Amino acid sequence: MIDTLHPDTCSLTQIPNPAHFQWLRRDSLILSTLMSSMTEGVLAQIVSYATFHQVWRALETNFSSQSRARTIQVRTQLANAKKGSQSANDYFLLIKRLADELAMVGQPLKCDDIVSYVLAGLGHEYDSFVSFIYARNDLVTLEEVYSLLIVKESHLTRHHLYTPAPLVEANIAQRQPPPSNNKSRGGSRGRGRHNNYRGGGAFSYNRSDTYNSSTIVCQVCEKHGHSARKCYHCFDLTYQHSSSPPNKQAFIAANNGGWENDWHAETGVTHHITHDMANLNLKSDDYTGTDQLQVGNGQGLHISKTGNSSLHTSSHSFVLNQVLLVPQIQKNLLSVQKFCTDNNVYFEFHDQYFLVKDYSGTVLHRGYVSNGLYHFSTKNVPPQAFSSVRISFDQWHRRLGHAASQVVQRVLSSNKLLVYKIKSHFVCLDCQLAKSHALPFTNSTYVLKSPLDLIFTNVWGPASVASTTGARYYVSFLDNYSKFLWLVPIKFKSDVERVFLQFQCYVEKQFSSKIKAIQSDWGGEYRRLHNYFQANG
């Protein structure tokens, strides 16, 4: 209300303020727009307020405390972030996302702070990378840190995959017995015969009949009465014994035969293990866990993939589930327990061979012993060809992205790929066209003297989205003399004839001249004008 003088009585009276009505109208519009964009949970908190100012203050009061709590939470996550088993890309994006959340609440971090959080969460294998970044005198950007981190991860992965496999040691040692005329016999645990040893299972050792368990000496703590497998220091990697008594011997269950493709039945492994990618099916998955394959000397080997496979003999086929691909292992090992469970069979081990039987007693497979190992051989299986067609040299050239002939030959020879026909010299049409150059245009002596001497026309379309008038095409008319362009939207290509006639009448009246020549791509929409062009010269 505002005070004003009455025109008749000259007394002071109050009348409604017209500006107040405008304010109420604007406030209602803003309030309705704001409330229409809120969720039901937020709307329930401010439904009792009548003006936009009251609603806005209520929202500020309710959510400012949450923003402060979220800021503390994000800073805590940044301080505790670790790379762990994540890829370098995922780890960097995690730090960047948390930094962006702080920036959105008005507390952006400096570039050096973000770099510090990235470096703090890296493992010991990245110590050289961290030292290199800290040694830089110039300002390091996030883009540089990201690219260098990706390169470092690639280097570590390549180095890890090509590290030679360690020797697998048997954790049993013994004193040398004194000379005696009594003959000793080879005691056996597991399936090794005499002094042949294998990695991954139980290990055998020689003992004299006159020696009891007190003669066994632990290889880890070097105390009498127990083996290294039962020693509580076995998995303590920080434990070191100070002295080493003489006459101690550790049997090494190493196989110097190199990589083998045969499978070996093994009771001491929990999963099927292979080093050859060809032993997995096409649906094998990358292993993303943190577990490693533990070998006899306590070292963990990297697991790169997991999948399923199968073994085919001359009379039967067996399934292999949960096969682990370990590039550093040298033997393909069959877990006897998993093999029996998956195929509903059992093993019968003998000194010279072993049998795989079903529970009716039928022999499904007979394996042999070689070098103390039970070989699950599939050599008698007739070879299976996955493809009976040899790819030609031309096809390999196209598959390799039209590489040079020397490159294709090097790839074929290094991978021992069979080809149908090798050509030392051949001509690829696609390569010739891609490397060819267009001839230069000759200089034109044609000179235009006035507008409408030559008109270029063409049709564009259809557009994926129609205009407000429903047009999906447009036809263009370009005057070669003035370089002036006319664009006319049309709904269908058939409208070109009508549009051209209208265009002709328009420009000829505007310039008081006739169109002397028309040039187009002679598409179907222009062929309908052929008779018209002939009739009008």
Name some characteristics of this structure:
537 residues, six-stranded mixed beta sheet, flat
The tally of domains stands at 5
Morphology call: flat
Distance between the termini: 82 Å
Beta strands, count: 21
Radius of gyration: 42 Å
Structural class: alpha+beta
Strand content of the residues, in percent? 15-25%
Largest sheet: 6 strands, mixed
Q: If you average the pLDDT, what whole number results?
A: 76
Widest sheet, order of strands = 13-6-17-16-15-14
Give the helix level as a range of percent: 25-40%
Tally of contiguous helical segments: 14
Unreliable residue stretches: 165-213, 243-257, 381-388
Structure characterization notes:
The strands form six sheets. The chain has a six-stranded mixed beta sheet with strand order 13-6-17-16-15-14, covered by helices on one side. Strands 7-12-11-8 form a four-stranded mixed beta sheet. The chain is flat, with a radius of gyration of 42 Å. It folds into five domains: 66 residues, no CATH class; 81 residues; 208 residues, no CATH class; 43 residues, no CATH class; 81 residues, Nucleotidyltransferase, domain 5 (2-Layer Sandwich). The two termini are 82 Å apart. The protein is α+β, with helices and mostly antiparallel strands and 537 residues long. Helix 3 packs antiparallel against helix 4. Helices cover 31% and strands 19% of the residues. About 13% of the residues have low confidence.
List strands and helices in order, with pairings.
Blueprint: E1 2-5, E2 12-15, H1 18-36, H2 40-46, H3 52-80, H4 88-104, H5 111-120, H6 127-134, H7 142-161, E3 169-175, E4 216-217, E5 248-252, E6 263-266, E7 272-274, E8 285-286, E9 293-294, E10 300-301, E11 305-312, E12 317-325, E13 332-335, H8 336-343, E14 345-349, E15 353-358, E16 363-370, E17 373-376, H9 393-399, H10 405-414, H11 429-435, E18 455-460, E19 473-479, E20 485-490, H12 496-511, E21 518-519, H13 524-527, H14 530-535
Helix pairs in contact: 3-4
